[in-house]
Amino acid sequence: MENSYLIEADNLAYKINEVKLFTNFSFSLKAGEALHIQGSNGSGKSTLIRILCGITPPSKGKVSKKNGLAFSYLGHKNALKTYLSVRDNISLLGLSQHESLKPFLLSLDLSEKLDVIVANLSFGQQKKVALLRIFLTSADLILLDEPFVGLDSTSHDLLCKFLEKKLNTGAGLVYTSHIPTGISSKNIVLD
Amino acid sequence: MELLLILKNEALKLVKKTRAWLGPILIFILIMVAFPLTVELTSNNLSDAFYPVLFISILLVMMLATEDIFLEDYEDGTLELFFISEKSLSQWVFLKIFMHWLFIGVPISLLGAFFNIGANNDLASSLMLFPALLIATYIFLILFCFGNSLSLTKGSVLGTLITLPLTLPILVVLGKLNTAIIFNISYFEFLILLFGILSIIIFAFPAIISRIIKTHLE
Prior knowledge:
- The complex is a heterodimer.
- Chain A is an alpha/beta fold.
- Chain A has helices spanning 45-53, 86-92, 101-107, 123-135, 153-168, and strands spanning 5-16, 19-30, 34-39, 60-65, 71-74, 141-145, 172-176, 186-190.
- By secondary structure, chain B is mainly alpha-helical.
- Chain B is built from 9 helices and no strands.
- The chains are: A alpha/beta, B mainly alpha.
- The interface between A and B is medium-sized, with 22 and 17 residues.
């Protein structure tokens, strides 16, 4: 793999119970590039992201990452403890002392919700809390599975701007989304 | 530093999720308080029956305490994050079990020794019983965690059934230890045997459990 690539997938295939989800899937992503994975429900978008993260092993093919690559992932599960407050969840994620925490809390309209139990937040608000982990990441590669689901237009725009900014600073982005995002990306469609 | 952070996070979760540790402790107290009420007042056998009831109730309570020990982290995605963070999953399992033991195993061991004073009117035997209970609760906790990891996505009953035979040798050793305490003969051999079992499984099982959890995640 050339050094300029952050991540490269070579001939990936995945099947569940002998049913093929996708086959011969290859791509490479350089710093500053984004890959938008599209496809219908059940086409294997989330599985593909999980394979790229290294959570799920592919049935065939391999994923190569740049040596020492730090990546950040947000999937369908948001890793929040619903019985804890927003503040406690931020503490669990190790973000309490992050210098950019306050501006993002303000932008996401969460600064007044710090002591609210996560179970009492709406789905969209929970998503925003989970997204804090992405907003405060210093990772070189960001992997997101349906990151825009449940977000209002303000938060949607904030996330798009943030991701564009990260791309301009040399990070890579792989994401799935059913809706147009405005982020300039390579597109791959899984049937 | 990393270890302290994991311990702090697990402690925070348990402090805020009171039912996870207070529930098993209250059930233990309920059993130990209710047991003498079911025995005839004229009976002289209360102290004879005390130890078997104590050991079986500890077994049941530790089974309850581990019911969803990994399930929550599996379902909310915490385990996925931990898996890709390249931190040691077996270390996390070890520390999670340890923190559960601190919150549930230690209080139950203390209460067990306390109830022993009530049942046998003997402080010396309670002091002998306490370290054995500390070790036994830890062993039961690890074994039931193993069972729960096996049936992580299938409900905890199946895992518990698989694990139950593994707890039988521990109950046998506890029974022998109980006899040694009653007849005031050396009980250290049994205590050392329990400690020996613990010293093996305390490190081996978190590694096995983490491997099982990884398989579930995949």
